Request: fold
Amino acid sequence: MKQNALTDKPMNPAQILVMGFSTIIFMGMVLLNLPVATVSMKSAGLIDALFTATSAVCVTGLVVVDTGTYWSPFGQGVILMLIQIGGIGFMSMATFWALLIGRKIGLKNRMIMQEAFNQSSLSGIVRLVKYVLILTLVIEGIGAVLLSGFFIPIYGVGKGIVFAVFHSVSAYCNAGFDLIGGYQSFTPFVTSLHLNLVILGLLITGGLGFSVVVELIAFKRTRKISFHTKVVLSVTGILLLMGFIVIFALEYNNPATLGNLNFGQKILASFFQSATPRTAGFNTLDTGALKEVTKFFVIILMFIGGSPGSTAGGIKTTTLAVVLLSVKTIVMGRRDTVIFKKRVRSEAMNRAFIIFTISLILVLVMVLLVSAAEADHDFLDILFETVSAFGTVGLSGGITPELSGIGKLLIIFTMFAGRVGPLTVVVALAHRTQKIEPLRYPEDKISIG
Reply:
């Protein structure tokens, strides 16, 4: 059992997750800092290498150098490896190797996997990890085949296959890294129905959550949909539809985004931009050219993010549902928060409010610090970039490469905290509340509101 060096106490699963992600990021930084990792054969520098490694492992997609032109094939391969490990989780990879060599998965490792996949029970956790690994390879493989049909005619067989594999993994893991070059993402292909639909399918599937996808695949046999899956699908559908309508309406006549597209292309581009803030990071429209009101709406979508146990970040769809419906319950003077004729447990409501509060505080503090360090940049752009980092989205208004060393370090911390921080704090608080307190202090009144 691993020990905490500071307290000599056994490390809990949340602490092990943090250490695991930190170790992988450090290894990625070392590899990306090698001269062979860049086209120029010069070292990228520790901060830029650390930023890129963190962005890849935390499946964010924010970049300080252009992925398609700055990094060599070796560097791009390292980034792809980090995205894959970060997307499905380092414990999934460790479990894969353990199963491959016939090692037994102990209770401690099962608890860590339970924490990583945000599962309420240890039952079936190893089986879920097996499904996740198989599902990931199958979906990414299908995505790569479909994308090959698009990229090979443009870039040739060799480069086309590389592009197909890289972007399939990046899309399914909701990473947002691309090899197109020039910080363009998929803007040159805004009118391509083929590319848009394949990428949308990959990123939405990756953002639903592994357990949800497994359940949907098994639906034909089981004919059962869990309460969790119903909530995830409902909130995801509502957010996609709402995002599409708002972006379509706000950007319809903007000549820098939707204005010059025909009606069908506007629908396609609007839907893509509705899906990608939660939390894929690709874009087919110039993010920096969006109207300010649209940027603010996208910030809200980025803060919400995807669903629990997925490759996405943010506070998660279920957290949003529980918080909003709990507020409605209190305002209406009702006792129970009910969704789909099911009562939400008080523990889940407490967890949702803790995640929401901690996430909001984290974002506000980091926006304040980044604003102080980057006084030359517009506040809305800083807010956009910071929330994008916290939600592990990767959309950028274009200021990331221009950040100072301090600004980059702050965004690095925000990406890392967005990937593991809120959940770690929640678990730590949950452990404390289970302890029996020696005494209870008397209640007193306080005015609220």
